[in-house]
């Protein structure tokens, strides 16, 4: 049985229709494709070494972020031979499982 959907939104990014409260399917696909491209590039670069390391993705024309050495520990730079798509968030590959900084066991690195 078909139920008319009343909670349809227009995506502010691409103009496609999607259900309210859900990720726009069109944007999701775009991000998925881009993410896969990055993963392939990571495979290419790092071969079969662990990919669970943090990866900093740089698109063409982007500079290596100015970060303290601490930041780069265990991180690899993956360069994409194209410009960053505008809709592609810089934070996309950051771990979503980051612990809230309530733990007192972790010292701020800038106090060293
Ligand atoms: Zn969209």
Describe the fold and architecture.
The structure is a single chain. This protein has 112 residues and is α+β, with helices and mostly antiparallel strands. Helices cover 23% and strands 12% of the residues. The chain has 2 helices and 4 strands, in the order ββαβαβ. The strands form 2 sheets. Strands 1-2 form a two-stranded antiparallel ribbon. A two-stranded parallel sheet has the order 3-4. Strand 3, helix 2 and strand 4 form a beta-alpha-beta unit. It is elongated. Mean pLDDT is 77; it is low at 94-107. Bound molecules: zinc ion.
Helix and strand layout, with pairings?
Elements: E1 8-10, E2 17-19, H1 25-46, E3 55-58, H2 69-72, E4 76-79
Parallel strand pairs: 3-4
Antiparallel strand pairs: 1-2
Quick tags:
2 helices; elongated; two-stranded antiparallel sheet; 112 residues; alpha+beta; binds zinc ion; two-stranded parallel sheet
Structure summary:
The chain contains 2 helices and 4 strands; from the N terminus they run ββαβαβ. The chain has a two-stranded antiparallel ribbon. Strands 3-4 form a two-stranded parallel sheet.
Strand content: 5-15%
Gyration radius, in Å? 19 Å
Poorly predicted tracts of residues? 94-107
How many individual β-strands? 4
Q: Overall 3D geometry?
A: elongated
